[in-house]
Amino acid sequence: MRPLQMVDTKNQYQKIKKEVDEAVIAVLNSSQFIGGKVVNNFAEHLANYNGSKHVIPCANGTDALQIAMMALGIKAGDEVITPSFTYIATVEVAALLGITPVFVEVDPKTFCIDPEVIEKAITPKTKAIVPVHLYGQAANMEAIMAIASKYNLYVIEDNAQAIGSDFFFSDGTQKKTGSIGHIGCTSFYPSKNLGAFGDGGAMFTDDDELAITLRMIASHGQSSRRYYHDVVGCNSRLDAVQAAILDIKLGHLDEYIQARRKAADFYDKSFSGNKHIEIPFRAENNTHVFHQYTLILHDVNRDQLNLFLAEKGIPSMIYYPVPAHKQKMFEQFGSDKIELPITDWLTQRVISLPMHTELDEEQQQFIVNHVLEFINQSSI
Predict the structure, then answer these.
(1) How would you write the chain as a 3-class SS string?
(2) Do 171 and 298 lie in a common domain?
(3) What pTM value is reported for the model?
(4) Domain, as residue range, for 260
(5) Which of 14-23, 44-53, 229-238, 284-293 has the lowest mean pLDDT?
C-alpha cells in the first residue's frame, strides 16, 4: 500500500506531468513571468468554467478577500457578518482593514453560516455578509442573497474550499459557487481542489466597474495608464508559471471532483449507521465537492483518535480546533465574550480524514478499519 497523505499532490502531478511540464517550459522560454497571455488565458478559461463575467487573478486567497473588501469601499468602523467556524484568513483581512467582524453561528449539518441568524446580527454599520463554503459544501446562497437584497448589503463569497460546486435555486436556475455574490474569492493553495504548485488566488464578479476597481487595487491602484495611481492598492499578482499549471489542472477539475466524490461515497458507506460517527451532510440545493471529508464524532475522544491514527501512519486533521471568535487577535473586538455554542460544539468534535484525488480503496479500507477499531475499543 502506498504511504497515506492528507493530500497527495505528488501522484496527482505524475498523471499530468507531460502537460504541466510542457506548459511550464513554454513560460520559461517566453520569459514573460508576470502577467501576459498565459495569465489572461487562464483567467478567461476560469471565468467560462465558473460562469463569471470577470476573473481577476491575484497572489493568494487572503489577498482576494482583502482586495474585495477594499473594492467595495468597506472601511474602518464598518461591520461584516461572517462565521467564526472558518480558517482565520476569512476574518483576518477584515481586522487588518479596521473592519469589525461580527461572528455568527453555522448550520450544524452543513458547517456553513446559518442564514436564520444573519438578520439578527445586522446593524446600521453592517456593510457585507461573508459566507464561507466550508469543506466543499455551499452555504445557502439563495437565502443569503435575499437577506443582502433586503438590507442593501454586499456579499463576498469565500469559495476557497468549494470551487466547482453547483448551487441550485428554487426557481430551477443553477450557478457555480463564487459566481453568486457581488464578489467571489478563491485560493489556489496547493492542497485546494484546484491547486497551484505555489500560491495564488482569484476574484470573480459580473460587475464591469467592480472588475476595473479590483484590478486597480491588485496592481498598486494603477489604472490602465502606467505609473498613474487612482486609488490606494497593493501588489498582488498571479505569476505566469502558476497560471500555466492551473490552466492545465482546470481542464481536469471536474474529473478531480468526481474522484473526491467517489472517495466520499466509500467513506459514507463504511461509516453509515455507526452511532458514534456522523458522516458529512449533503444538502439537496448544492453539490458537495469534498475539499475535506469531515466527521462529527459522538461520545468519542476526538484527540485520542487523532493520535491513534497517527501511530498507524494515517494522517488526520482538526479543522479548526479554535474558532475565530476565541482567537487572541480578535479580543480587541470583544468577540471572546460572545456565545456561539454550536460553533464551540463542532470544534470539539470534528475530524477530517485523508481526502484527495489519488485515494484508492486499499488505502481507504485501511483508514476505515482503524477508525472503527478505535471507536469499537473505546466504546466497550
Answers:
(1) CCCCCCCCHHHHHHHCHHHHHHHHHHHHHHCCCECCHHHHHHHHHHHHHHCCCEEEEECCHHHHHHHHHHHCCCCCCCEEEEECCCCCHHHHHHHHCCCEEEEECECCCCCCECHHHHHHHCCCCEEEECCECHHHCCCCHHHHHHHHHHHCCEEEEECCCCCCCEEECCCCCEEECCCCCCEEEEECCCCCCCCCCCCCEEEEECCHHHHHHHHHHHECCECCCCCCECCCCCECCCEHHHHHHHHHHHCCHHHHHHHHHHHHHHHHHHHCCCCCEECCCCCCCECCCCCCEEEEECCCCHHHHHHHHHHCCCCCECCCCCCHHHCHHHHHHCHHHCCCHHHHHHHCCEEEECCCCCCCHHHHHHHHHHHHHHHHHHCC
(2) no
(3) 0.96
(4) 253-378
(5) 229-238
